[in-house]
Each structure stands twice: as C-alpha cells, then as structure tokens.
Amino acid sequence: MKTFEHGGDIQNFAKSINCKLEEVIDLSSNINFVKPEIEYDFNNLEISSYPKYEKLYSKIAKNYKVKEFELELYNGGSSAIFTLFRHLDLNHCTIYSPAYLEYKKACHIYKYDYNLINRLERVDVPIEKNTLVVFVNPSTPDGTYYELEKFLNYWQKQNATVLIDESFLDFTDNNSAVKYIHRYEKLYILKSMTKFYSSAGVRVGTIISNKLNIDELKKFEPMWKLSVFDSIYLQEALNDKKFRKVATAINVKNKIYLEKILQNSNLVEFIFNSSANFVLARLKSYTAKQLQEKLKEYKIMIRDCSNFDFLDEKFVRVAVKSQNDLDAFKKALDAISK
Fold first, then answer.
1. Which of 206, 218, 294, 301 is within CB 3.0–4.6 Å of 28 for a Cys-Cys bond?
2. From the DSSP assignment, how many helices (H) and strands (E) are in the chain?
3. SS3 at position 328
4. Average pLDDT, the chain
5. Which sequence spans correspond to the domains of the chain?
6. What is the average pLDDT across 149-175?
C-alpha cells in the first residue's frame, strides 16, 4: 500500500474487477451511509454572485454550541489540518498513533520533527515540551474514545499546542473537548463535517478554538474558499432536525450487527471496541491483502490497515453500512471460511 493511502477508492476497485460503480459494496470508507434529507433544489442555485458564509457559520456554531467567532471554516478536514500546521509553524509534533495518516503527511510537508506514541500499547507516556500534540478522538482506525481531561492537564504543563480531531465524535454521545477551549489557550478542535453528514464530496471542515486563535487564523485566509454549493448543502443538512438522532440510532444498531458478524467469523482473531462507525479487526490466518482479494469475487471492499503505524498486515477496518451490505459481507465471509 502507498504510505498515505486511504479507503474508499471505488473507481479503481470497480475497474480492477470490471464492474459498475453501483455494484461495489464499499466497506472501506467511513462516511456515514445514512444521509440527511436535502430539500433544496440545486437547479435553482444562484452561482453568479460571490458566496457569503454568515448563515453557514451561524448554523455550525449552533450545532457545536460555540460562538461564531470561535470557529473557522476550511475546504474539508484535510485542508484544515494542513492550514493549521502551516500557521503554527512549530518544530515538533507528537502524534498519538495509529492516527489519520494526513497528520504524518503534514509533518513531512511542513518539516516538523515528530514522534509517535503507540496508544494501543500505552497512552500515558512523557512528551517533549512545546510540541504540537495530535490526538484523534474517537480514534481511527480502532474507534476508541478517550476521556481527555487528565491528558489536557499534562499537555498544558508541557506547554504543548494541542489539536483534538473529533471527526467521528458526532457518531457518539460522548463529551467534546470544545468545553476546554477557554481554559486552555493552545487548544484547537477539528470537526470534519463530511463524515457524519455523508458528504465527502462537499468539502467543509471546521477548526474551533478561542477567539484570539481564530482571529489569527482568519488573517491568512482567502475571502472565498468554499463554493456556494458546499455552503448551501451543509446548511440544508443541518436543517434536518431529525437526522442526528435517526442516523446515530441506525449506526449503533448496524454496528452491533457488524460486530457479531466479525466475532462469529472463524477468519477473525479479535475486534476492538469502537465508538465510531467502523470496527477494527485482526485476522487469524489471512492477511488483509489476501482477504481483500477473496472479497473481490463478491464486489466488496474493506480497508487494509497495514499502512497505519503499529498495525501489521493482518489488520482490517470494516465500516458500518446498510443491513443489506452487511448481510452480503456476512455471506461472503461464511463462504470464504469454508
């Protein structure tokens, strides 16, 4: 696998097995399979004027219970990460790993020295002073949720700048670190709107921090960086008041079913307890690549996790999807294990 490769490349997958895109069952991508109801007619979208973002800022601020001046918007979560690394201009980064691979990529691009903490082995280890701490919560690819107050207290003593990536927190009822932004002046929270709102093609990411930090970030941002389509789509998604409750309930139900499928398969050695919309599993005899090849016969994609730090070639991540997709996955595993 390529060093920074991600899941969800259904175009190449479909091409490799000579099938149509709509035939692929994509269990590699962690985008919500439940979609909000969008009532807006985009055929009537006004695109001759420059976009304005006041309403979008207001809706996102209300959604995350912060003030509008405590957030800044970006062209997706990855853009937010790269912008923050560039803006902070620090020398060192500490990544609690395994983690979203764009963080290592950002370290390489912006010449940060970095070290990785294997949180699956031990999470309470010393860090350097003045480092940039990156912590994904719930984590990827295992979906573990961590209570962070004691970590924040320690990071503050080490004068660390802290980025908490909460891209998958919307799938849970767990507490956000947003409540600490006034207590800890060097704290930034990343919210990737596209995961929960099932809109990877709509590029909107959010950084939340105190007003001083956000004002500094805004100084270097262009006037227009989101399309009017991005803005309107996400506003309409946030207008679906029932979506959060419905999507969370369905994902929890289907995750329980997915966990049972994996636990009952003799191909799987163990699974991780996940708070997110995916499950990390370690295979018994097959490698991830071998199982991927077997699943091609059934037009099913899963995520090979061998390019995550501290994971080997036997780890796979399977996303929570529809009942029908998971039924197909179960049948495929049963057939392969015979």
1. 301
2. 11, 13
3. helix
4. 93
5. 10-35+243-337, 47-239
6. 96
